[in-house]
Amino acid sequence: MAQHQQANLYLDRDSEDLKHLQNASNQSEKYVDQRELYKHRKDLNDYFVNQDYQQKRSRKIESHF
User: Fold this and answer.
1) Contact, 37 vs 25, CB < 8 A?
2) pLDDT tens-digit profile of 42-53?
3) Which of 2, 46, 53, 55 is deepest in the core (most CB within 10 A)?
4) What is the pLDDT of residues 50-65, one digit of tens each?
5) d(CA 65, CA 61)
6) Around Cβ 30, how many Cβ atoms within 10 Å?
């Protein structure tokens, strides 16, 4: 990642990944924490799974009208 000007980090919201985030942030300002995007979820995968569920549910509700 050294060759990139910015590196977006989509880490889990647990204590272990918080350590990795802090370590990366201490090394360089180019590492950007993107966990705000899924702040109400455990991790990015949980966010996407929930989004997919919500979309399917929405389509199912719309098809009944």
Assistant:
1) no
2) 999 999 998 866
3) 46
4) 886 666 566 555 555 5
5) 7
6) 14
Q: How far apart are CA 2 and CA 30, in angstroms?
A: 10
The percent of residues above 90 in pLDDT, for the chain, comes to 66
CA distance 46 to 32: 20
Q: Residue 56 gets which letter from DSSP? A: H
Q: How far is CA 56 from the centre of its chain?
A: 21
Cβ atoms of 42 and 13 within 8 Å: the answer is yes
In sequence order, the β-bridge partners of residue 9 are 33
**Contact yes or no for 7/34 (Cβ under 8 A):** no
- CA–CA distance, 39 with 58 (Å, rounded to integer): 22
Residue 47 identity (one-letter amino acid): Y
